Amino acid sequence: MITKRLLSFYFFIFMIDNTNSQEIPFGSPEYFNSTINLKPVLISFENEYTFSDIDQAQIFKTISGQNLIQYIYLDFDKVSSIRFKIDTDNFPSNGELFFIDPSINGWVGPYRSELIKNHQTGLTGQIRSSQVIIEWSSSIGEPAEIPVQSIIKITEPNFLKPTKISQPPYQTQIDRERLVILLTGYWPPSNEAIRPFSRSLLLNPEGWIGENWEDRGYDIISFFPVFNPPDCSNCGQGTGDLEVDYQDTSIDFWNIVDTLSPVAIVTFSRGYIDNSWELEWKYYNLTTWSNDFTPPYLPTPNPPESDVPINYIRYSSLPLDTIVAAIDSSGLGLTAYIDYTDGAGGYLSEFKGYHGVWYKAEMDSLNIPCYLAGHVHVGGLIDWETAHEAAKITLREVIKIVDDYRELPGDINDDGVVSIMDLLLIVFHLLETNEMTDEQLQIADLNFDQTITIMDVLLLSDIIMGM
């Protein structure tokens, strides 16, 4: 006789603010064209620093054409993840704001009035550095103070680690000899990072490398727009699949996934002008998108997913922590991190990233396998070869998890791990104190004899004990 025990569980629900994140408009800082010599200002703080506490005498001012340009060189003593809160109420229409990382000659911005009007929180994207130069340009006729309210240190929430991904029981995918993993990109280097996975000889004359990639049992297929010149900075909309246009991206995306039925999706786009490999954790069903290049300038419909509320959040299911660890240990010299705090930018990056996780959710509801989906922002200073190597590292980590899900027996309660809780479900079923669903019965049948017996309990015990 098996004694039933009372089990206690503690569940914590964390509510995360709906905030907007990065946007990558066009332009570069005047700083790189100047010969000014800035003196660093040491800033020491734990969580948030009020910008008004900075001595105005430490702000360097210079004239460029019809503009007054103000600089402040912040030294944080050690490498930190920093964001800035912009004063959106006092941002003149002709102002332009950059945040520069002098260690790599990279930057975030420019932030302009037409951009931040849709970013109600005024939070910039994340910069990971020990030093940041703020460049603020405003009209000589209407000079304005640097519109920054505070500096915020980002601390990754420990409760989000390690990555555990819940999955429903999936039906076996049919009508395909080999499973497909889909990669998409847009502005370089994100499109160049995945170009060798394109099956188009026009786009990839060197030949498709994705067929049974690295003998891992998956076909890797990529789609992306192209640009002229291919190493563009102000790239525009591009041509081909998944152009930088809401309507074109959405139509192409749904046609692609309907054709390929991918078991995993990784969408890529250009991020900050630096060497970052930024993994986005959440994506919003927004209405406040930035304009694209061709009318209609916003998504149609808007928000894109009409069956859920405005600003509804969907989350990445990529193995974020292991991707960061693999990139860090690769020797590629990239700064890999997870953006836990914000969405993916309110432009085509977030739009495409949302489509990936939206598709996965649709397949989950139909019990059709799409195990993982998520978005990566690729730093604009990363050379194409390095970006390709980082994409392959990311892909290998994705495949490990897809393999785990395809081969994970005994996960009856669908929490992504095999544990005593799954064992108890079988026991309670045999004791007739709990009834399992048809899907759970299929997963619990570990010896495939079409019957749930004590043998299945013993086999699952072996799995849990690692025997």
List the helices and strands and how they pair.
Blueprint: E1 41-42, E2 48-50, E3 60-64, E4 67-86, E5 96-101, E6 106-111, H1 113-116, E7 127-139, E8 148-153, E9 179-184, H2 190-194, E10 218-223, E11 225-226, E12 239-240, H3 246-260, E13 264-270, E14 276-280, E15 282-284, E16 313-315, H4 320-328, E17 335-339, H5 348-365, E18 372-378, H6 384-407, H7 420-430, H8 438-444, H9 454-465
Helix pairs in contact: 3-5, 4-6, 7-9
CATH architecture descriptor name of the largest domain: 3-Layer(aba) Sandwich
Radius of gyration: 25 Å
Name of the top-level CATH class of the largest domain: Alpha Beta
The CATH homologous superfamily of the largest domain is named: Peptidase C15, pyroglutamyl peptidase I-like
Number of helices: 9
Mean pLDDT comes to 83
Poorly predicted sequence stretches spanning 5 or more consecutive residues: 1-25, 158-176
Helix and strand composition category: alpha/beta
Q: Indicate the percent of residues in helices.
A: 10-25%
Main beta-sheet annotation: 8 strands, mixed
Shape: globular
Q: How far from one another are the termini?
A: 25 Å
* Beta-strand content estimate: 15-25%
The CATH topology annotation of the largest domain reads as Aminopeptidase
Count of discrete structural domains? 3
Give the H and E element order.
EEEEEEHEEEHEEEHEEEEHEHEHHHH
Number of DSSP-assigned strands = 18
Written account of the structure:
By secondary structure, the protein is of the alpha/beta class. The chain folds into three domains: 30-153, Jelly Rolls, CATH 2.60.120; 159-407, Aminopeptidase, CATH 3.40.630; 420-465, no CATH class. The chain contains nine helices and 18 strands. α3 runs parallel beside α5 (348-365), α4 crosses α6 (384-407) and α7 runs antiparallel to α9 (454-465). The two termini are 25 Å apart.
